[in-house]
Amino acid sequence: MTQLLEITASDSENMRELLASSGYADKAIAYFLNRANMGSLPNADHVTQLTGPCGDTMKIYLKLEEETIKDARIQVLGYPGAIASAMAAMDLIKCKTIEDAIAIKDGDIFRMLEEIPDQKQHCIRLTIKTLQKAIEEYRCKK
């Protein structure tokens, strides 16, 4: 029998405190805890997966209409920095053109998160590389 893991308010607060003491800003913590853009996207126009050298894996789903990203979701297997970065990136690219989305840089995501530990900066780079790979593959398909 499978049991569901219930995360209580106490667990959430403990996680918030742990991440804050590790150097994550409140905004980055909120992205990690809320995970609003986590998951797959039925009928996606393009799906791309990338695994970084640290082992974190991201799978991005894009729904496009006339070169505009109408919706985007991402599945992440990784640390809080990877999850927060990916969630912020999906917020950044929704309703943007392909050209605007591919122009997003590390600093754009960092500003959205406000602060993550220095040793987790590679999570932002993995998010950018996954996004760029998805857009380049989509362009090649067309």
Describe the structure.
This protein is an alpha+beta fold. It has one domain (9-141): Alpha-Beta Complex (Sufe protein. Chain: A). 49% of the residues lie in helices and 18% in strands. A three-stranded antiparallel sheet has the order 1-2-3, covered by helices on one side. A hairpin with a 2-residue loop joins strand 2 and strand 3. Helix 1 (9-21) packs across helix 2 (26-34), helix 2 crosses helix 3 (80-93) and helix 3 crosses helix 5. The protein is globular and about 45 Å long. Residues 1-5 have low confidence and may be disordered.
Shape: globular
Strand residues, percent: 15-25%
How many domains in all?
1
CATH topology tier name: Sufe protein. Chain: A
Rg over alpha carbons: 15 Å
CATH architecture type: Alpha-Beta Complex
Which class do the helix and strand fractions yield?
A: alpha+beta
Q: In whole angstroms, how far apart are the ends?
A: 46 Å
Strand ordering within the main sheet: 1-2-3
Mean pLDDT: 92
- Helix segment tally: 6
Q: Helicity, in percent? A: 40-55%
* Helix-strand sequence: HHEEEHHHH
In the predicted model, the low-confidence regions spanning at least 5 consecutive residues are 1-5
| CATH class identity | Alpha Beta
Concise overview:
The protein contains six helices and three strands. With 142 residues, it is α+β, with helices and mostly antiparallel strands.
Give me the secondary-structure topology.
Elements: H1 9-21, H2 26-34, E1 46-51, E2 57-65, E3 68-77, H3 80-93, H4 98-102, H5 106-113, H6 121-141
Helix pairs in contact: 1-2, 2-3, 3-5, 3-6
